User: What shape does this take?
Amino acid sequence: EIVLTQSPGTLSLSPGERATISCRASQTVRVIHLAWYQQKPGQAPRLLIHATSNRATGIPDRFSGSGSGTDFTLTITRVEPEDFAVYFCQQYSGTLPWTFGQGTKIEIK
Amino acid sequence: QLQESGPGLVKPSQTLSLTCRVAGDSIKNDGFYWNWIRQLPGKGLEWIAYIHSSGQTYYNPSLKSRISVSMDLSNNQFSLELSSVTAADAAVYYCARSSIIVESRYFASWGQGTLVTVSS
Assistant: This one.
């Protein structure tokens, strides 16, 4: 099983600041097999990014993803009020089971 | 859209049964996997299993001995059964769709989730 470890667990930011979330895999994940999701309270996760850096339909360009190998990053260039939520990375490689990181909460500072 | 349904309360040692009704797409479409995912209270997400229209299934090894997933093609829905539940199985259960294409197996569509409590 591929274990994904996110850091930090919580990010305290003010609107307009930059957010950077790390996702480290226990073994190499191909870039085409890494996704990011956003989850707000009481809602299902929403796909933000797939294949490491491809934004899903309707996702604003302040969200970007990067990385390769075992280290991946989600960046929000300027956090908007609606971006305060929990973010998860996920690998969907040929190595099942598919797994998620434990989540990073972006909270208002 | 996907919509989960099932009892919100299950007794310990009993079997949890959930159904995901799919609208706007056919589960006979052989281009998709139909998945179950759960979220333990205040914690992260755990992928449980998928089923394909061919009948192919894959179960998370951590739960494999207790789970079964099936499809009801006539009603365009699929189901999850989890046996011998304990308090550790209390969670929000989601159904979700993913493509069978290797580079597109992320979860693009999700149900709203259904909360399951385990208590006597």
Notes: DSSP finds no helices and eleven strands in chain B. Chain B touches chain A at residues 43-47, 58, 60-62, 94, 98, 102-108, 110-113 (CB under 8 Å).
